[in-house]
Amino acid sequence: MRPLPLLVDSHGREHRDLRISLTDHCNLRCTYCMPAEGVPWLAKASLLTLPELLAVAGVAVRAGITEIRLTGGEPLLRRDIVEIVAGMAALEGPSGHPEVSMTTNGIGLRKLAVPLAEAGLARVNVSLDTLVRERFAELARRDRLDDTLAGIEAAIAAGLGPLKLNTVLMRGTNTDEAVPLLDFALARGAELRFIEQMPLDAGHTWTREGMVTADETQAIIEAAHLLTPLPGRGAAPAERFAVRPLGEPDAEPLGTVGIIASVTRPFCGNCDRLRLTADGQLRNCLFATGETDLRTPLRGGAPESALTALIHASLAAKLPGHGINDPGFLQPRRPMSAIGG
Ligand code: SAM
Ligand code: SF4
């Protein structure tokens, strides 16, 4: 393994985390992500193939990426998902093999959790916004709660942990479930992470007033549990808390909870993430308005040095922050499902 120059941007942030969207397709239509009719899908021929994905990830790992998160769209819809995981897990960089994880709606895990674990998947984040079947069917526009729950149990049984569950709270929709969802996670030794809704949906329906803020979320949980901030956040997006029974500061924690305040308390200063879209465009931020095309040079047989130079050029242009709170903020052209959350 020949190491490559580390991925340090012009603000001194060293990049360790690569998020790869494997497809923009999905078997759900969560209201905060996609309109009911879906989005104009990427052409199949434009999706990076397994060797192309491994070529980009291989360069990134040799340049110091230690964590690869597979996402989408719904990553489990890729027919070659087990081969992708195995290929990624076998890559080698200066710190050894990367940790390969996945963000998924969980639906395919009943079938795939064991083969994925055997292929080298370390852990999964499963999205879960409600435990009520009718509400799930409304929120995700598909009646699949049972499949998601079965996927969660399969992930636990396959040892894909520590399991994380992702929840987006929406005013008037599921805020009453913040505590039941947290209790569901605690009972399974999982960490629930509440994510502030971001202006990334294809339907452009996000409003600041509709978003449940991190402060509100914390207040709802603190009515039922005692939260104590945990130190050592590093580059992680989540602020983490130990959870104890109310009024029992000396009790053994029941577990942990995370709050991701992307909008109201941005954490860009410590960002260590790069993103690759399913069609091979490198993005230096979830909210970037520009992208670096890696697919064309890859398919044109560009040497590895050219790919490396393009990745470094994208990093050099990375802005200090996402600017959601600036008056001139423009929502990126691509929705979350096409960027990879
Ligand atoms: N389909 C997979 C899933 O749902 O976990 C992976 C892709 S999804 C885009 C990744 C994560 O982004 C999910 O946890 C989802 O809840 C979150 N997400 C999607 N749209 C969002 C938005 N507008 N604001 C905040 N989080 C969002
Ligand atoms: Fe699909 Fe995930 Fe978007 Fe829901 S959040 S529509 S599961 S990509």
In short:
The protein is 28% helix and 17% strand.
CATH class: Alpha Beta
- Biggest sheet details: 12 strands, mixed
CATH architecture label: Alpha-Beta Barrel
What is the share of helical residues?
25-40%
Number of helices: 10
Mean pLDDT: 93
The distinct bound ligands, ions and cofactors come out as:
S-adenosylmethionine, iron/sulfur cluster
Which key terms come to mind for this protein?
10 helices, binds iron/sulfur cluster, twelve-stranded mixed sheet, binds S-adenosylmethionine, alpha/beta, single chain, about 350 residues
Description of the molecule:
The protein has helices at residues 50-62, 81-89, 109-119, 133-139, 145-157, 178-187, 214-222, 295-299, 304-316, 336-339, and strands at residues 17-21, 67-71, 99-104, 123-127, 164-167, 191-195, 225-229, 239-245, 255-260, 273-276, 281-283, 292-293. It is of the alpha/beta class. The chain has a single domain (17-339), classed as Aldolase class I (TIM Barrel), CATH 3.20.20. Helix 6 (178-187) links the parallel strand 5 (164-167) and strand 6 (191-195). Helix 1 runs parallel beside helix 2. It is globular, with a radius of gyration of 19 Å.
